[in-house]
Design a protein that fits this description.
Layout lengths: L1 H6 L3 H30 L4 H7 L4 H4 L1 H10 L7 H21 L7 H11 L1
């Protein structure tokens, strides 16, 4: 049992846990959190239901993932480069989404949520 807990003190395991959290964040944000936020500001239930479609790119990532494996970015190599670019893009997409009012501009919120997803 001691070796089990010792593994979690490893730097590599910590980095992988952070990466796992970051890779699951868009799905949670474009799913449950967005629906709860829109319900709190009293957006129409039909609009909230349609907003669940923004999680489709995350669900179909097996279709676009081979493109990321095929092409390498000029910096940091293939995988690290795409991870860095994706995390940077995700930062700006979440920042953009946080400034959109879902009740006033639901279509802009859909675009922002699609960027996050």
């Amino acid at each position: 049992m001691g070796s089990f807990f010792r593994a979690f003190r490893s730097k590599r395991v910590g980095m992988l846990m952070g990466l796992g959290f970051a890779s699951g964040l868009p799905l949670v944000m474009s799913g449950q959190t967005l629906s709860a936020w829109m319900a709190t500001v009293e957006v129409d239930i039909k609009t909230i239901g349609l907003m669940t479609l923004v999680s489709l790119p995350y669900s179909f990532k097996f279709l676009w993932a081979p493109l990321l494996d095929r092409y390498a970015l000029p910096i940091l190599g293939r995988r690290r480069g795409w991870m860095a670019l994706t995390q940077l893009g995700l930062f700006f997409a979440i920042w953009f989404e946080s400034g959109v009012d879902p009740k006033q501009t639901p279509s802009l919120m859909a675009v922002a949520a699609l960027l996050v997803a």
